[in-house]
Amino acid sequence: MSKPLSKGKAKELNGLVEELMQHGFREAITTEQLLTQHRNMATVLDRIRRVEPKLRTTNGRPRMENVDHFTRWAIEQGGCTVENVRVAEHTEYGGLGLESTGHIPAGESIVTVPRKLFFYVTNEPRYRKLLELMPGAMMSEQGNIMLALALIMERFRAKSFWKPYLDLLPERYTTPLYYTTDDMGELVNTEAFLPALKLCKHIARQYGFIRKFVQDKVDDLRDCFTYDAFRSKPYTLQLTYS
Fold first, then answer.
1. How far apart are CA 25 and CA 176, in angstroms?
2. pLDDT (tens digit, 0 to 9) for every residue of the chain, 242 residues total?
3. Which residue in 134, 180, 207, 241 is a FRET match for 83, CA 20 to 30 A apart?
């Protein structure tokens, strides 16, 4: 966990977040307008990232070095069963995946994951308090936001049960949230252009909106809710939320 921002830096950051939101809600229709809006928002986000504390979202080790610890944790602490497969690195696909270690008959279960290892938002006091503080409409319509915030809280929580799982996650993802403005320009005239722009704008506006609430009201997120932490959480994956 980093030290709180100075009053001067906090004021600067608040001004940048306001500027980001202004860009994010301006009307943009044509391709040139959409690209200009994206560039403007990306420029402000770069400035935001320079002001916000640099928080480590992993333990700093290569992902493969965390596999054995994660596997033991999943089996011994979580009750997961694993048969004839292992986690292996597949550089051609840019990440980790399952690799068979023996013959797998058709229809055989190779991995069983008990509910204890489903990451979902429980009724614990810290989550209940967050739900009470955040706008009800946002939480009821955007359950994935609450899941993202819960993941950030666990990432920076001392002695979190989920640390072996969080240590195995990538530091960054191959999504448009990490594209440069030049990369985004290469998508013009493709089917991916509008969805990519929409995703980046949506996440940026969510970040700005949420930050206004957590900075003064949520102790567990005040010093660890940053744009980089928010975009690095895999809350768009099929994780359980309830």
1. 19
2. 567 788 899 899 999 999 999 999 999 999 999 999 999 999 999 999 999 988 887 788 889 999 999 999 999 998 999 999 999 988 777 788 889 998 898 988 999 999 989 888 777 777 777 777 776 655 555 567 888 888 898 898 888 999 999 999 888 888 899 999 999 999 999 999 999 999 999 999 989 988 888 877 777 888 889 999 998 865 544 333 32
3. 241
